[in-house]
Design a protein that fits this description.
With 464 residues, the chain is α/β, with parallel strands linked by helices. It has three domains: 241 residues, HUPs (Rossmann fold, 3-Layer(aba) Sandwich); 135 residues, Orthogonal Bundle (Isoleucyl-tRNA Synthetase, Domain 1); 47 residues. 45% of the residues lie in helices and 15% in strands. It has a four-stranded parallel β-sheet with strand order 4-3-9-10, sandwiched between helices. A four-stranded antiparallel β-sheet has the order 5-6-7-8. The protein is elongated, with a radius of gyration of 27 Å. The chain binds zinc ion (ZN). The site of zinc ion has 3 residues, from loops.
C-alpha cells in the first residue's frame, strides 16, 4: 500500500489513482526569467523521486510540467533588456533543460508553455464569466471569491485575514475586493497581449496552471506537486478556477516539498548565500552528489544546505559506488557454508516499503546501507556465494532506478580507492621510488586498470 501526506486533507492517506495502474502528475515548472536556484531543484528532485518510485511500483505515469514563459517577472526582465519576451525566455528554457539532464531528472511527458496555450486559458475565462464566478473590471477579469465558498480548503487560510498583495506584483490592477484575484490582465502598450471578446490582455499566472494541467490530464487528476510556498495563493487559486469551471474535484493528492535554506538562512542574493546549479558546477561540485544530497532529506522537512553536508552526501554516495565496484570485481568462489535467507530481497522490500510510506527516504537509505554493511561482513567471513553477490547487485541496481546516483556506464567514474592508488603511484614516481610505483601499477592492472604515462599526465583505461 502506498501512502502520501495530502496537504488537502492534512493527513497521510492511501494512494488510489483515478484510473487503476495509471497516474496523472502535474508539477509546477520554472518561471523562465532567471536560472533556477538549488531550492527550486530541491522541489524538482523530490518530484523526480516520487515519479521514479511510482514507475518502480508499476504505474504508468503521465507527467506534465509547465513552463511559465509569460508572467510579471518574465515581462519585466525582457523589458529591462529591451528584447522580445521570446528571446528573453529562450535562454532560460534551454538552461533549465540542461540542468535537469545533469541532475538526472527524468523528462516529463509534456512541457506545455503558457504562450502556446492562450486559447485554453481564454476558454476558461469565458466559462468562468458565463457561470458568474468571474467579472470584468477596468479591462481585466477577476475571480470572485465570494462565489466560491470552498476557497481556502488547501491552505486552510482564514479568508478574513486575506490581504491585497499576498502574491508579490499580483495587484498591479485595482480590485473590487481584496479577496479577488486576477484571471486576465488588461493589455498594456509595452506588454505582449492577445485579443479576446472580453478585451485584449494576457493571462494571470495562476490561470496558466489550471488550463495546462487539465488540458493534458483531464478535469480531475491524481497528484499535483510544488513547493510549500506555492500552496497559497497559487495552488489555492488553481483549485478555485478549475473546480468552478469544471464543476468537479480538481486534484486528489497535493504533495508539497519544504524549503531549502543555506547555512540556516533563507537564500538571498544580498546575503551572498544564493546558489544556482551553475554556481555549484563552477565550484567543481558533481551534480549527482548534489542530487543525492537534495533527495536524502525527507521532502516535508526543511533542508539546510551547507558545503559540509554536501561533502557528507558525496562521501555516502561514494560508499555505494565503491561497494558496487568491488562486488562486481570480487573473485568469488562457492562457499562451503553460504548463509541462508535472501539478504538482497529483504533489503529491497524494506527499501520500497519505506518509500511507500510517504517517501520515507531516510528509512529507504538505511535499508540500502544495511545491505552494504551485512554483505561486507559476509564477504569478510567468506560467507557470500557468487549467487548471493549477484542478488545483492541486482537489488542495488533496482534501488538505483529510484535514486539514480550510481555512475552511468558512459561516465567511467573511478572508485575512490583506485583514484587514491593512482595518486600514490604519482607520488612514488615524484620521489623516484620506482619499485613502489611499479608495484602499484601491477596492483591496478590486476584490478582491471591500465595506466599510461603521457606528457599531460597519467591516463587510465579500464580493461573490458
Ligand atoms: Zn503552477
Amino acid at each position: 500500500m502506498i501512502r502520501f501526506y495530502n496537504t488537502l486533507s492534512g493527513r497521510v492517506e492511501e494512494f488510489k489513482p483515478v484510473r487503476s495502474g495509471q497516474v496523472g502528475l502535474y508539477t509546477c515548472g520554472p518561471t523562465v526569467y532567471d536560472y533556477p536556484h538549488i531550492g527550486n531543484y530541491r522541489a524538482y528532485i523530490f518530484e523526480d523521486l516520487l515519479k521514479r518510485f511510482l514507475l518502480l511500483s508499476g504505474f504508468k505515469v503521465t507527467h506534465v510540467m509547465n513552463i511559465t514563459d509569460i508572467d510579471d517577472k518574465t515581462i519585466k526582465g525582457a523589458k529591462a533588456l529591451g528584447v522580445s519576451l521570446q528571446d528573453y525566455t529562450k535562454k532560460y528554457i534551454e538552461a533549465f533543460f540542461e540542468d535537469i539532464k545533469v541532475l538526472r531528472i527524468l523528462p516529463a511527458n509534456y512541457y506545455p508553455r503558457a504562450t502556446e496555450h492562450i486559447e485554453d486559458m481564454v476558454k476558461m475565462v469565458k466559462g468562468l464569466l458565463a457561470k458568474g464566478y468571474a467579472y470584468p473590471k477596468d479591462g481585466s477579469v477577476y475571480f470572485s471569491l465570494a462565489k466560491f465558498p470552498d476557497y481556502g480548503k488547501l491552505s486552510k487560510i482564514n479568508k478574513d485575514e486575506l490581504k491585497a498583495g499576498v502574491r508579490v506584483e499580483s495587484d498591479e490592477y485595482e480590485k473590487e475586493s481584496v479577496y479577488d484575484f486576477v484571471l486576465w490582465k488588461k493589455a498594456r502598450p509595452d506588454e505582449p497581449s492577445w485579443e479576446t471578446e472580453f478585451g485584449a490582455g494576457r493571462p494571470g499566472w495562476h490561470l496558466e496552471c489550471s488550463a495546462m494541467s487539465t488540458r493534458y490530464l483531464g478535469p480531475t487528476f491524481d497528484i499535483h506537486c510544488g513547493g510549500i510556498d506555492n500552496i497559497f495563493p497559487h495552488h489555492e487559486n488553481e483549485i478555485a478556477q478549475s473546480e468552478a469551471y469544471y464543476g468537479q474535484k480538481f486534484v486528489n493528492y497535493w504533495l508539497h516539498c519544504h524549503h531549502l535554506v543555506v547555512d540556516g538562512e533563507k537564500m538571498s542574493k544580498s546575503k551572498g548565500n544564493f546558489y544556482t546549479l551553475r554556481d555549484l558546477l563552477a565550484r567543481n561540485i558533481n551534480p549527482v552528489d548534489l542530487r543525492f544530497f537534495l533527495l536524502s532529506t525527507h521532502y516535508r522537512k526543511m533542508l539546510n544546505f551547507t558545503f559540509d553536508s554536501l561533502d557528507q552526501a558525496k562521501a555516502s554516495r561514494q560508499r555505494i559506488i565503491d561497494f558496487v565496484y568491488e562486488l562486481e570485481h570480487q573473485p568469488l568462489t562457492e562457499v562451503s557454508q553460504p548463509q541462508s535467507g535472501s539478504l538482497a530481497a529483504a533489503a529491497l522490500t524494506d527499501f520500497t516499503n519505506s518509500l511507500a510510506d510517504d517517501l520515507n527516504i531516510s528509512a529507504a537509505l538505511a535499508a540500502l546501507f544495511e545491505l552494504i554493511r551485512e554483505t561486507n561482513s559476509r564477504l569478510a567471513k567468506n560467507e557470500l556465494s557468487p549467487q548471493a553477490a549477484s542478488q545483492v547487485l541486482s537489488a542495488i541496481y533496482e534501488m538505483d532506478r529510484v535514486l539514480a546516483v550510481l555512475p552511468e556506464e558512459s561516465e567511467e567514474e573511478l572508485p575512490a580507492g583506485i583514484l587514491t592508488k593512482i595518486e600514490q603511484r604519482e607520488q612514488a614516481r615524484r620521489e623516484k621510488n620506482f619499485a613502489l610505483a611499479d608495484s602499484i601499477r601491477q596492483e591496478l592492472l590486476q584490478q582491471g586498470f591500465v595506466l599510461e604515462d603521457t606528457k599531460e599526465g597519467v591516463r587510465w583505461k579500464k580493461i573490458k
